[in-house]
Amino acid sequence: HKLHALYKLLTDDLNEKASVLEEEKEKKSELEALAAKFEVEMKAVEDAAKSLRAEKDTVQQELQQTLQSVSTIQEEKESLFKATEELQVVLQTVSKEKEQTTAELQERERLAMDMEEEKHQLEEATTHLKAGLISMEERQRALEEEKKMTVEQLRTQEETAKQLESEKRLMSDAAQNLEANLKQVTEEKQTTESKWKEERQRRIKTEKRLRLAEDSLKRLDRALKESGVQIDLQIETDVTNLKKFFEDCIAEEQFEAQKLDIMRDAVRAKATYNTTTQHLENLAVRESPEPPPTPEDVPLVKPSSETGNSNGTENGDAGGERPEVGSSGTEVIANGDAGGKTNGEISEVIANGDAGGASSEGAEVVANGHGITNGAAEANETNSEAVCAAASGDKGGSGSSDAIENGVPSSPSDF
């Protein structure tokens, strides 16, 4: 009667565990969908990073052209300064000549009143001097006009230089912002990749534990069949250990919920990139008469074979290791399946999620007075220690040589 009561308790408990594991299966499916979406967004972030690099190169080229234009304008400014100084010297010389000619003209007019004999000669000389004076005045006016034009050109060149300097500062600020955004996107990408690699390592470890648990379940089932109707009370302790490890397994599966943080980080990085890009575009439109190049106008750089391979690894090794791992048992865990692969009819019952159902092998075990049901096969989600402890409980009291030959320890302390 105690064995039957224990059997019922274990059946109820394992049914509850099966329902909880079924819920975990659904959660894992949702997480896989989020992981696929995350891979797509990672590719989008990489494309955006390539666009930012191309835009950065374009800005640097424009900055170099601006610097060359500034240097050319500076040289023209210096040449205009020199021409202005030369014109000023010529103007001063002409003014002095004008004063001298005027003085000579006045002197000759005074002499004309005293020397009427030289009147005709002086009149001719005066006529020539007046003609020269008129030509000098015209030349002086032309030089003044040329000076005004030179000063106006100099003022225009100074304004152009100021505008180019302001554009240079704007280009420098835009380049710094682009470099900061590129660095931020690269850091977020590295953080996301490290989290994904840690998740993949954890899945590989879970697969190894699944294999060990499967072997232990096979040994447990074989030991139960070979024991016949004799069973030791030590199995109660082993079943308790098995139950405890089931609870630990559930706690580990709940830890996978932290993968949502990775998804949030990726979405936040994309939103930050979009906001910064829009801000830079608006700034360029306000400050420059020409529209800035958009990420769609910039040609994307085709990745090399080495870059393509690294991207494949960073996106979760979608084409390499995961199918191979899933073929050996991780696929069951990734799909959230609470059951696993065991021998006989037990694997069929667990794969269907029926932890308490009876199969042909399970019915034989109950008929022989064993308190273990098919639900024990759910140890595929546990590690090898708890399952082997249950196996040792089946053979612990008798110390049978068959159990030792089958690799089942005689007591839990052997683990």
Number of helices: 10
Question: Major sheet, described briefly?
Answer: none
Q: What oligomeric state do these chains adopt?
A: single chain
Total beta strands: 0
Share in β-strands: under 5%
- Give Rg in angstroms: 47 Å
What distance lies between the first and last C-alpha atoms, to the nearest angstrom?
31 Å
Which residue ranges are poorly predicted, with pLDDT under 50 across at least 5 consecutive positions? 289-415
Q: On the 0-100 scale, what is the average pLDDT?
A: 66
Q: Give the topology string: H per helix, E per strand.
A: HHHHHHHHHH
Shape label:
rod-shaped
Folded structure, characterized:
Helix content is 79%, strand content 0%. The protein has 415 residues and is mostly helical. The chain has a domain of 281 residues. The two termini are 31 Å apart. The C terminus is likely disordered.
Task: Characterize this entry briefly.
This protein has 415 residues and is an all-alpha fold.
Which secondary structure elements does this structure contain, and how are they paired or packed?
Blueprint: H1 2-114, H2 119-227, H3 234-255, H4 259-287, H5 305-314, H6 321-334, H7 346-351, H8 360-367, H9 384-395, H10 401-405
Characteristic key phrases:
415 residues; mainly alpha; 10 helices; 79% helix; disordered C terminus
